[in-house]
Sequence to fold (129 residues):
Amino acid sequence: MEYSKRDITFDNGGALRFLLAEPARFAVALSTCRYYQRDHWSVQSTTGATPYVAWDGQYWWDRSARRAGARLTGFRVDGRTVGIGDAVAALRAGGFADLADLLDDYGRSPGESGASVPLPFDLRCALAG
Fold:
């Protein structure tokens, strides 16, 4: 699945359309054993304004393999990148390479963050393969 959520605005009803559509998308996804979604987010006051927050995301789970994860890229707040990748760069520049190495798996580029986590055993998905 891929969604463009770049029209979350307060002046043209984009925020309301998002709030009305998202629960149904989420409910459909929760019933699956495997899921992958890519989306593109932007939340701003009016069309064309600098977004309060924006990012491109990938979210997935595989209940049979008992793993889930998310990866955000281009994460920006008020036009400035934020994310673990930004912290890694700052730590490296500050002489804290060991700490930067510990965080490197969770984001390397400006505005990038990501992680995967274990999921509990799901008999229905384990039997489905």
Notes: The mean pLDDT is 91. The helical segments are 14-30, 84-93, 97-103, 123-128.
